[in-house]
Amino acid sequence: MAQNKTDLLAVLAVVKKYNLKSTEELLKKEAGLTDIPENVAGEAEVNSVLAAYKSEGDPDIYENSYMELRRFVEESLDIYKHELALILYPVLVHMYIELVYNSHEVQAKKLITKFGPEQEYYYQDELAKLAMVTKRDEMSGNDITDTFKSNAFTIRISRDTLSLLKRHLHEKKASVILNIVNEHMYFDLYEGVARNKAQCDATSGAMTGEAKRQDNKIKVYYGLLKEPDVQTLVAAPPEEDDDMDPDAPDKPKKKKPKKDPLFSKKSKSDPNAPPLDRIPLPKLKDVDKMEKIKALRESTKRVNLGPDLLPSICMYTLLNANHTVTCADFSEDSSLLSVGFVDSSIKVWSMTPMKLREMKSADQLKEIDRDAEDVLIRMLDDRKAESCRTLLGHSGPVYRTSFAPDRTMLLSCSEDSTVRLWSLHTWTCVVVYKGHQYPVWDVRFSPHGHYFVSCSHDRTARLWSTDSHQPLRIFAGHLSDVDVCIFHPNSNYVATGSSDRTVRLWDVCVGNHHRLLTGHKAPIYSLAFSMCGRYLASGSADKRVLIWDLAHGHLIAALTGHTASIHSLCFSRDGTILGTGGLDCALKLWDFTKLVDDISGENVNVSHNPDVRDGEPYLLRTFPTKQSPFLTLHFTRRNLLLGVGMYDLGM
């Protein structure tokens, strides 16, 4: 309080000096300053208060202030040093922006040239882009300056570290830094011991700092939806098909189950699963029911993988495709393969002896008996069957394709900013979805069909349903391109990875993000959910795969070993093994069961990220290809691992 009164008296002295009578009276009245002596404040005190305003106008003070702050960080005790060091980068960026804004280009350039190179390696790209902004006019519309001006930089910090920092800044009267700290930084305070270097490094790297604890507080229903009871499909008469409706309550079973190994396992309700009616899901048609039974029969023949029994791997290499192929995708049952090309075409191959048939003409369809059991087969023309089909319609490179779970449709997205839906009966485009303003990088169907998600250079991801031209949700919050998106196995959540170096988990019901995951040091290009739905793997240009626990939003492991970007991730069907494929022409298999077992033994401290496990003990095997970087990985229902790559002559 004494300090505040001194400040006020100093201001009053200035007002008196310039003989501003009415202002003086007003200030006295508002501040409650009565019985004030004639000489209200000494000249030294006046100068100290005004120094704050003067320093902002003096461009040369910025460099000294930064050096003083850096010295303070370096000389601090080791216990506080690593958390304090987190403020150096945002302070430097805001100092540069302030100098440029006030037209002090020479000092700004000197500041960033001198201190830029000593910042962390993952900030260098942004600093290089920032250094190109040298005039106030160039700021508007610049990604970096806009991001820093409109978003507070978040730092998780212990109460002791923060009080140490504030005490230093007040003692030194470092007004330039104090203003930046107060206006542009958000300190996420916690009680307890300050974090060490490894803990700070684990979650740093995103454009605007770390995630606030508040960002990961909301409960996430990561459990799987109860599978419809397949036995009733087989045993029950057709009129009881309602049992398959995912929204219908479970009905009592009328017959005792037969001793068929296929139906011996009952699907249990997962305590962490969302309610069945949380989002409307499509009702299962007869074809879907038969497909479920087929999938169950396949899964009984599945190989149970583990450290002693690794999967067989079948690698498909695209020849003469260097720099022309952009993406590849398998259907869920592994019977179809789609490949997108730079020339805007899409090719679909049948992976089985059954060829790709086309629907008969309208005249021929009239003659078909609609009540026949095999009406769907009769509608297709065997004479027009081919092993490969080409789809044309996009006007730019195709960046991703995705098969509908029932294999009747295919989605594709392109540089032309559209998403297209193709019929795999007529082999034509049936809908063009226009909503994104810029290239669309990824598109994925929901595991339950009907819904799909797309993401774009416009920094948004969008949720669509196949029967609507307009998006149902727009997921906005990323600060740069959204490069990859994927549905959670229960279809209630969407995960996105971005060039802002964060992963976010969005709730499709409300459209908000429920998890913000920071720790990657480069753009994120691949995502995969574990079979249980609790864990998320993300692969990045930082050559690492990070494993996240969605229950608490914690980073639990960093799998290192790849020497280039990781563009494909896939969990085995039994959830025991994670396959990762990179541009380094290497496929790595990791023991995911062992990782989860090791973690489950630990006590979870909800306020702190646990120590991040190193991936080395979990690496089972590395398989190099000759010169084929991986486009996609896919485990079949029987746990055969399929890979697609293109032979790259230039490597």
TrEMBL record:
Alphabetized PANTHER family for the sequence: CANNONBALL-RELATED, TRANSCRIPTION INITIATION FACTOR TFIID
Gene Ontology cellular component?
A: transcription factor TFIID complex
* Name of this chain's protein: Transcription initiation factor TFIID subunit 5
GO terms (molecular function) for this protein are:
RNA polymerase II general transcription initiation factor activity
Which SUPFAM superfamilies does the record associate with it?
Taf5 N-terminal domain-like, WD40 repeat-like
Organism in which the protein naturally occurs = Anopheles melas
Keywords attached to this Swiss-Prot or TrEMBL record, sorted alphabetically, are:
Nucleus, Repeat, Transcription, Transcription regulation, WD repeat
Basic and acidic residues bias: start-end ranges: 259-269
